[in-house]
Amino acid sequence: MSDPCFLAVDWGTTNLRAWVVGRDGAALDGRDFPLGVSRLQPGEAPRRFAETVRPALKAERLPALMCGMVGSNLGWREVPYLDCPADLRALAANLCRLAGEDPPTMIVPGLRARRADGTPDVMRGEEVQVLGWAAGKPERRRGRRLVCHPGTHAKWVRVVEGRVDHFVTAMTGELFDLLCKYSVLQVRESPDDPDAFDEGLEAAGDGAALAARLFTARARVVGGDMPAERVRPYLSGLLIGAEVAATPALVGAEAGEPVALIGDLRLCGLYRRALEARGIAASVHDGDEAVLVGLKALFETEFVS
Amino acid sequence: MSDPCFLAVDWGTTNLRAWVVGRDGAALDGRDFPLGVSRLQPGEAPRRFAETVRPALKAERLPALMCGMVGSNLGWREVPYLDCPADLRALAANLCRLAGEDPPTMIVPGLRARRADGTPDVMRGEEVQVLGWAAGKPERRRGRRLVCHPGTHAKWVRVVEGRVDHFVTAMTGELFDLLCKYSVLQVRESPDDPDAFDEGLEAAGDGAALAARLFTARARVVGGDMPAERVRPYLSGLLIGAEVAATPALVGAEAGEPVALIGDLRLCGLYRRALEARGIAASVHDGDEAVLVGLKALFETEFVS
After folding, report:
1. Mutation test of the interface with chain B: which of A112, A187, A213, choosing the one with the most B Cβ atoms within 10 A?
2. Phi, psi of B60 (to 5 degrees)
3. For residue B245, pLDDT beyond 70
4. Do A120 and B224 touch (CB under 8 A)?
5. A31, A58, A78: which is the final residue of a domain?
C-alpha cells in the first residue's frame, strides 16, 4: 500500500465524498458525508471540513483538492467558471488555492459553455469526472466523443481531443423528484420494474410534448390501464426516454452515435437501457473512479510539475 | 330580468364556481367559493353545498347541475367516464342524479378518450366548456375543429361535427407550479414581462428536450445573461411554447391549423401569443360563458324535453 498523498473531495449539493489517495493514484480510504452545500449554513464549510471530514479520514496533514458545488456561491468560496473548450491542463492552471489553509487546499473551477443558440450552460464537478474518464485511456482523447453524466442535472458533453468542447444540462432528475414528491401523479415507492420502465420508454416517443406524455402516468391509472405501484418506474422510463431521444442533438450528436455514460452505476444502467432501446450503443463508467483519476491528474500537474 | 331557472356549478379541484341561471340562459348571480374538491374532507361535499353554496346564492329551491371534479373519487360521488366520441346529447343521457337530493341535483359525467397510441386520457369539466362553445354557434359544429383549454392540466381537443372526438391532456400548468415552488430555478414573483415571455417562447424551439431547455432558465441567471426577476415569465413562455409546438400533433392537427382557446382569458391570451409566434391563428373564448351555455343546454335536454 502506497503512502497517503492527498485528500480528494467531490463536494456536491447533497453529499460530500472524500478519499485519501495514495502515490499510485489508488484510494486508500473513502467516506461519504451528508454535508452537501445545500445543507450547510453560510460560512460553515471550512469548519465542517476541518472538524468532521479531515479527522474522519485521518487526513489532517494532507493537501486537499476539491471539485463540485463547493466552488459555488453556496459552497466554501465562489470560484469563477472557466470557459469551454477546456482540458485538465486548463483546470490545473485555474485551481483556486484557499488563502490561510494549511495544508494547502484547492478548489477546481467549474465550466461554462454556450449552446448552439447562444444560451449559456454551466457545470461544477462533472468536468473532473469527464476529463478523468478521458485521461484514463489514450483512445478516449482521440476525435469526438459523446459523454453523458446522468443525475439530478444530467450533463451531455461533447469531448473533442480530450477537451470538454461544449455541453448541455437536462434537469431530468430534478423533474423526476418534483413529480414524485409533489404532483398529481401520486407516485409511490415501488420495487424495480423493468417492464414498467420499458413502457415509459415507449411512451416517451420522440421526446416532444413531454407535458402531455407525463399525464399518461396519471391517465393510465385513472383509466384502469396501470396499477398505481407501476407509476414510479414508468415515470422514470418516460423522463429518461424523452431525454435520450432529443438531448444528444443539442450537442451535435449524429444519429445513433454511441454514448459513454459516467456516474452512478445504477442510474447509468437505466440510461443504457433507454439508449439501447433506441439502438444506440452505450458504455458505463464508474463516476467515482473517474473523479479520482481526474483529481489525481490535477494534483500532479499542480504539485509535481 | 328572467326568473331563476337552475343553479349551474363548475366544481373543480381548487375552486367551486356557481351561477343562478335565468330562463333565457343569462347568469343572474354568480359566486366563487374556495371549496374545490382537493380542499374537502371525504363526504363533506353535500353539506358544504347545502350550507354554504345554496344559501349564498339564495338558491335553496333551485335544481342544480354540476360539472367537474365533483364527479371524481375526491368529489361528491364518482360518476363513470363517458367514452368519446361524445356530444351534449350523450352527456345529457348520462347525467347522474344524486339520490335523496331535493331539489334535484345532478352531476355531468367526465369523458375518456384513447390517444392514437392507445393510452387513455380523461377530463372532468372541460367537456362542458368545449361542447358549450360548440353549441354557441352553428358553424362551430361543422367539420373538424381544434380546441385548447389551457390550465393546470391543459386539454387539446379534437371536435368533429360538434362532438368531442378525442383529446390529450398536457400537465403544463402543474409543471409550471412545481418548478416555481420547489425547483432549483428559484422563481420569484414578478410583474408581467412580455419580452421575457417571448424569450422563453423562442427557447422552447420545437418542444423537444424540454428538461434541457428548462435548465436554461437557471443557466441564464447563473451565467449572467438574465436577471432573476425575469425567470418566471421566461419559464411561462418556455413551457407554453413547448406545449403549443408539439401537442397539437397528438390530436392530429395539420400544420398551422387554427386553434380555438377556451378558458381563463389571461391564460388564453398567453397561449394565443405563443401560437401566433408560430404563425398559428388563435381565437379566444371565455370559459365561464361556455360552461353556462353548456350547462343550460344540458339542463334543457333533461328537464324541458
Report:
1. A213
2. -60, -25
3. yes
4. yes
5. A78
